[in-house]
Amino acid sequence: MKIYHDFVKNVPLRRLCVLIFCILIIWLMRQIMSTVLLTFVFTFLSVNFIRQIQHHVKLSPFWIITPLYLIIIGLIYLLATHYIPNIIDSTFSLLKKVFNFYDSNKVQSDPVIAFLVESAKNLKLDDQIKTGITEIWRYVTSIGAVGFTIVISFLLSYFYSFEVDWMNQFGRAFEDSKVSWLFEDIHFFAKKFVNTFGVVLEAQVIIAVVNTILTAIALTILKFSSVPSLAMMVFFLSMIPVAGVIISLIPLSIIGYTVGGLQTMIYVWIAILAIHALETYVLNPKLMSSRTHLPIFVTFVVLLISEQLLGTWGLIVGIPIFTFFLDVLGVQTTNK
After folding, report:
1. Which of 86, 177, 237, 323 could form a disulfide with 244 if both were Cys (CB 3.0 to 4.6 A apart)?
2. Where exactly are the transmembrane stretches of this chain (predicted)?
3. pTM beyond 0.70, yes or no
């Protein structure tokens, strides 16, 4: 018992063991990681919305969150029945137009196209495209499972949100149990997790929305077709810090050349560069403060490692998880 009491009193060692225990539990839950992460994101945003409303009007969480979720369900139904079929049709139309353009005799002798083809061969982009198509096909064929995951996460976040006060009270009750130290440490890490991972992920969503809106406006001005399809692509890629901008620039450049030649492609580069500058110098400092002032090299290394460990999700949550560990270790980063 003396060893046990000494262990409980040794707070740094105790918290290290609790952190390892939590990581092990999360690793064992990796098969349902999509549900866990989506539930956390939906719940974090919902609870923040509730607190913002309660700051102005004293209402029960149930009466705040229920109308919001009903509105979201209505919008999803509207998208599924009216807009998504049109977006799918316009996407296939755009792809057909691009393929026909690059198969034409005029394009075959174009020096710009020759340069792109040669670059693609050197970078082995054909293999990467095949891999990408395979991944897309896998997601499409598992659309039922993806839909089920989203629905379950949506429901769980709703149940947690309208009982958020009761859930907080229920959680605090464990801190008075016989192993109170364990739940105190779990609460310590959970609080840091919300204040770093949650805040950073929320900022990524806001930045992605702003990037998508500005990019859609720029593409509309440049007379691109199928702007909603391209906007969806930009939104998902914008969730990937730094690398998402580079990845999205490739298909937008190709389509821009299809629309108006080299001049339009350059306009696309200028527009993306301006939007990225806005994100870097205005949105990031304002929304993320000093939490994610990471060198670009470190950002790419974290993305590469997290993608290997967590798959596609790693590209989105890799940086927030890394900032969480920096916060736990007490590492202060500054932007120079």
Report:
1. 237
2. 12-29, 36-54, 60-80, 139-160, 203-222, 234-260, 266-284, 296-326
3. no
